[in-house]
Write a structure and sequence with these properties.
The complex is a heterodimer of chains A (about 140) and B (about 140).
Chain A lengths: L13 E4 L2 H10 L19 H9 L5 H5 L7 E10 L8 E4 L2 E8 L4 E11 L5 E12 L5
Antiparallel strand pairs in A: 1-3, 2-6, 3-5, 4-5, 5-6
Chain B lengths: L10 E6 L5 H11 L9 H6 L9 H15 L5 E8 L10 E12 L2 E11 L5 E10 L1
Antiparallel strand pairs in B: 1-3, 2-5, 3-4, 4-5
Classes of the chains: A alpha+beta (about 140), B alpha+beta (about 140).
Chain lengths: ~140, ~140
């Protein structure tokens, strides 16, 4: 079971490119018809797309799970937060630096909540966003 | 906001989405980079103790984000957060709504706080969240 020793742990930074073709696949998948996203020259990204960029370009998929010994089959997404500080547009190159912010046991150890905070910077070193995910681990029952 | 300053209690976000299909989950798996098999491989989902595959939380949040940016330009969103209250099953027909709960001055600008929900066709809350937008 993941314990407090995981707090502060950092994982491999992810560098992701905001590519128009991949963005179009995402927009089409969600049936997104808003023209603001289709102006390729300076199109912003949808509000949840930062989460996708980090996953798509991770060199080690689900690294924080494997690094902490968590079984993917026991994971649920508990909460998700985005704080936006500056625009992210098609053509940007972003760097994600994930870090474990907290580990909390719930329901007498039946669940563990893990918060991973990820600051995002762009190719100019501008801190464009903070992404925070809370993962719920359904721990095995000690029967 | 193009339609002037909203008031507390105004429902400024409202959008309904088509039923969640297996096909949609497969597309989202590829489009999002989230290749967790629990959303597309029924054998994996059953072995993990679930009766079937189920929607990615981030697909549902993506729909909520779409509903939000139908009403508010993406550049005006300062924060967007949700709690995933319940698993979204296949066939779910989602309705996303956002209500103004507070008008605030923050970061040198006028902002509004929105309470956001995503419910299925039975009225069950799947996502409960919040956004702060610049007016």
């Amino acid at each position: 079971m993941v314990d407090q020793s995981a707090v502060g742990r950092e994982f491999t930074p992810v560098t992701a490119h905001v590519e128009p073709g991949r963005l179009r696949f995402f927009l089409d998948t969600l049936g997104e018809a808003n023209p603001v996203y289709r102006d390729v020259a300076a199109a912003p990204v949808p509000p949840t797309y930062l989460f996708c960029l980090e996953m798509m370009d991770a060199t080690v998929p689900f690294e924080f799970l494997t690094a902490l010994g968590i079984d993917l089959a026991r994971v649920l997404h508990g909460e998700q937060r985005f704080d936006y500080h500056a625009p992210v547009v098609v053509g940007d190159t972003l760097t994600f630096q994930p870090r474990v912010a907290s580990v909390t046991e719930k329901k007498g150890g039946a669940m563990t909540l893990i918060v991973v905070d990820t600051p995002v910077t762009n190719q100019n070193g501008v801190h464009v966003a903070d992404v925070s995910r809370t993962i719920v681990v359904r721990n095995a029952r000690p029967s | 906001m193009s339609a002037g300053v909203p008031s507390v209690g105004d429902v400024i976000v409202h959008k309904e989405f088509p039923p969640i299909t297996r096909h949609r989950l497969a597309l989202y798996c590829g489009a999002s980079g989230d290749h967790n098999p629990i959303h597309v491989d029924i054998d994996f989902a059953k072995a993990a103790g679930f009766p079937d595959v189920f929607a990615h939380g981030m697909l549902v949040m993506g729909y909520l984000g779409q509903a939000l940016t139908d009403a508010v330009a993406p550049s005006r969103i300062r924060s967007f957060s949700t709690r995933f209250a319940a698993i979204t099953q296949l066939g779910a027909q989602l309705t996303c709504e956002g209500t103004v709960t507070e008008l605030i001055e923050q970061g040198g600008e006028q902002r509004a706080k929105l309470a956001l929900t995503t419910k299925d066709q039975n009225g069950e809350i799947k996502l409960a969240g919040e956004a702060i937008i610049a007016l």
